[in-house]
Structure formats: C-alpha cells, structure tokens
Design brief:
The structure holds 2 protein chains of 2 kinds.
Chain A (H helix, E strand, L loop, with lengths): L1 H27 L6 H4 L6 H10 L6 H13 L5 E2 L4 E2 H36 L4 H15 L2 H15 L17 H39 L2 H8 L4 H12 L1 H25 L5 H11 L2 H29 L1 H9 L1
Antiparallel strand pairs in A: 1-2
Helix pairs in contact in A: 1-13, 5-6, 5-8, 5-11, 5-13, 6-8, 7-8, 7-11, 8-10, 8-11, 11-12, 11-13, 12-13, 13-14
Chain B lengths: L4 E11 L9 E12 L4 E6 L5 H8 L7 E6 L2 E2 L5 H7 L3 E4 L3 H4 L6 H12 L4 H14 L16 H14 L4 E5 L7 H18 L2 E6 L2 H7 L2 E6 L2 E7 H6 L4 H9 L3 H10 L1
Parallel strand pairs in B: 3-8, 3-9, 6-7, 7-8
Antiparallel strand pairs in B: 1-2, 1-4, 4-5, 9-10
The chains are: A mainly alpha, B alpha/beta.
Amino acid sequence: MRYFLGRTLHAVFLLFGVSLLTFLFSALTPGSYFDEMRLNPQISRETVAALRAQYQLDRPLPVRYAHWLNAVAHGELGFSFAYNSPVGPLLWVRARNTLFLTITAMLLAWLLALPLGVWSASRFGHAPDRVLSWTTATLLVIPDLVLALGLLILAVRTGWFPTGGLASLGFENLSPLHKLRDLASHMALPVTALVLATLPMLVRHVRASVAEVLDAPFLRAAVGHGIPHSKLLYSYALRAAANPLISLFGFSVGTLLSGSLLVEVVMSWPGLGPLLLEAILARDLYVVISGVLLSMIFLVSGNLFADVLLYWADPRIRIAASAK
Amino acid sequence: MQPLLRVENLVKHYAAGRPAPPKDKFAALDGVSLSISARTTLALVGESGSGKSTLALCIACLEHPTSGSIWFEGVEVAGLHENQQRLLRPQIQLVFQDPASSLNPRWTALEIVSEPFFVQGRFRKQERSDKACTWLDRVGISRKMVSRRAGELSGGQKQRLAIARALALEPKLIVLDEALSALDYSVQAQVSNLLLELQSSLGLTYLFITHDCAMAAHVADEIAVMDRGRIVESGPAEKILRSPGHAATRSLLAATPGVPETQSVLVNS
C-alpha cells in the first residue's frame, strides 16, 4: 500500500513539474492569440487590450499560473480563445478518441510482439530469427510519418479503407453490427500505422530479454526436470524476462501516444493530435497546456500501471517495498 | 557389472562464430569415451575450455551431441527423440557451478525444491511441500529458512538448495558441474561431505566435474582427465594422482595446492 502511495505521489509531483514547465515555455514563445488581431485595422487597440485583460494575459506569469492551478483544482482547464468555449469538454471528446485508438493499437502490438519475440528468441541465430530481425530493423528505420503516408496512399489507390475520420456519414442510422464494421474499417489504417511503428521495438525487446534468460542455468534445470518446450518458453522464460518488459510496457504508452498524435494528424483522426496542432499554431494557450498535461497524465498513468504490474509480478519488489 | 552410464566416442561441434561458413567448426568434444559404475563417483578434471561442461550437458540430455552414443542403464539415449528424452531427464540431474543463477530468484527455497514435482505433475499440493521440506532438511536447510528466496541465502545454502532440487526427482545419476568451485574452502568441505553422505545413504552415482585435483581426490573413486575435448588419461583416483601419465594431468596437479597431503591421506586410509 505504501508502495502505491509513493508511486502516486511521485506521479503527482511529476505532473506538477510538467505543468509548470509548459506554462513557462509557452510564456517564452513570442506573441499570443490576440497579437494577430492587432494587424487587423478594423479592431482597435483598445479592444485588443480589453480582450487581453479579460483573459488576464496582461497579468504577470506567477499570477496567471496560480490562477490556472486554482481553476484546475476546481476541475476547469481554462478557456479556448479559438473555440470560444471551455477547454475541458473540447478536450474530453478528443482524448476519448485518442485513447480508443492508442489502447487498441497497444493491445494489438503487444499481442503480436509477445509470441513473435518469444518465437524469435527460441530460434536465436537461426534463419527465421534472422529474417524477423531484418524485418524489424527495416521497419525501425522507416519514420512513422512515411509509414502513415504510405498507408494513406494505399488506401487512396485501392479504396479498401476510408482515408480519414472516425465514422461514415449516417453512422447513427446503421445497425449495431454495421456500426462496428464501420468503426473497424475507419480504425484499420491508423491502428496499422501505430502497430507498425511500435511493433519492431517491442519484438526486439521481447526477443532480447527472453533470449537472455533462456541461457540461464535455472531454466536449464527446469528442462532437466522434464518440462515441455512450450511451457518452458511461455511460462518460465517469459515470466523470468517480464520485468524489463513490464517497464517497457509503461514506456510504450508514451511512445504510442506521441506516435498517435502524428498519425492522427496525417489520417485526420479526430483525436488530440489535430486539436493540439491547431492550438499550437494559433497560440491557443490553455488548449496547448491542457493538451500537454493530458498526454502527460496518460503517460504517467501508463507508467503507474506498469509499476503496479511489476509489484504484482515480482515477489522481490513486494518484499523490498514492505521492508521499507 | 554393467556400468550405469557409458559414453562412447562422443563428438560435439559448435559453429565457430555465426558469420563463419558451416565447415568452420569447433569441436568441444572430440571423441570422448567413459563409463561410470553405479554408486561410484567419477571425477572429470580438466582446465576450463577442455569440454567438461559440454560433456555434462550432453549426458544430461540438454545438448544434442554431433555423433557418438550415450548409454544409460543399457539404453542408448543420445539418439532418442526429444519427447522420449524429456521422460528420461528426471533420471539424470545437474547441479550447476553458479548457485546464484541456477536458482530462480523469484522463488522461495520451498518453491524451488517443489518445482520439479510441479513439472512432473507428481503428488498433491500438501504432499509436494512436505516432500520438499524433507529434502531441504536432508541437505541441512532448516525449517525456518524454507520461505527465504534464493537471494537471501548464503552461497553454501544456495548450493545445498540446488542439490535438494536435483535430488527431488530421485535421480540415479547426478552431474555436478563445478558444483563446489564457487564456494570457499570450509564450505566446500561441508558440502562435499554432504554429497558423500547422500551417496552412501541413497545409492547415488556422481559425475563430479572439477578443475580442483584435491577435491577430486577427496570425493572420487575414479578420475578421468580431459584436455581439448578428449579424455587423455583415466583410472582409479589414487593411481592417477600418484603417477600422472599425461602432461595435462601434471599441469593440473601442479596448479593444485595441497594435493600431496590429500594423497597421503588417501594412501593411509
């Protein structure tokens, strides 16, 4: 219990620090949302100044930060200048779509990476392993952007998949089964792009960790006791190799999320990615800060989840934690 | 009498480095023949890299020899299919050199010793831990230590634990691959005496692999000297140590302090 409290406290401090840094850096960037209004001769200087005052952009930075923190504590994330609405509801819909995409992609990537990596490790150095290593290495050097664009070209040329969005027109009128099919076909491309972007790294890590423990004498001893090969690989070796992989799981949440923002923009998936990009270009301050913070919350929760998994999976950590 | 284990002309090649063409092979075992009678100890001595551990793995059916045959209780085992070997493996157990890496660090002593029962599906739950406790007690690990994890035990205790695990399936042959080398002298003496005591009470056969001639003299009935993948000399322990016939034996003896004393002890007894 104390272990979880410690990890959670750690996470809260991290989030606090990130929010402070985002605030600072966004203050360092020149200009604000209202500066472009000044170029418009139809808007008077007084109006711009009044707007700045209304949104408290004329106040010093610490005051603004304190004000914003207070708002966050009350569950409000600030106000979007561009959408002229509170940030919270705006962000929530987008975050839901992003989470939907990344969680699907992550589950799929891990479901593929585990058997592929274990299989590769069990044939370490042999032909199938080498073919897989070359494939993953090739995929690793292709940038996510090129992957996503390539898939998009494929979709346009073949017409097999819709090239953007989350649902077709008239989605509401479809039967549940067709709704599911429609959603799946819309998700196919972004999910494929994300899986292809993360899978190589995961497979290589699984392969390396499992190959390392496969040489361990305690596994040889288990073979000596007459354990079947498949049980050795999936039950013993994978469990013994689990610790670095669980940490990687937390980390993969982060990489998938950052990859997702890019893929979302390319494939026009209505998630956080396009919203954040627009907000950054328009200097829509509170949307940017809240978006970054939200991504950070996802990342931190991913790591927290990994910590909990680690605690559950490894008795040594449990003992070390309870001994403290 | 028919020997428990007979190895004939065993050859094991390893590919020398992966990029090398397949013809470039390194012979870890280059035609090894030996035999061990039941209830005796054969010490296999040799420098590191002479192929002792490869031989151990082949005998335990954990590596497939390139050619040659291994007869265990009159059955040829090297050519058996993987599934048949799996059934045979419990009869021959290995104790490894490094006790720290041969025990699963996540498990308690009790779990480690009951693991072979799980693998084999022997006994019910309660019976498994009872049996495991008996074996732990037998090797000198007390009841209050059974819930400790491998990392919380000393080197000697870990090796006792590894011995208990090897004994759990009641094997006929135990291959001790440098099993005492990682321990300090006083602990080596205790564990080797434990091994001798277990041998006489359980009727075990040992293949005792070591580079330490003094230890070989202490535990072995026969000694075989290995050098570069071959057995260069073998015979009764006393004879080999008193009048070594091969340069490899002499250099091993020269590197072992205190052998003359052991020799005289052996002669006197």
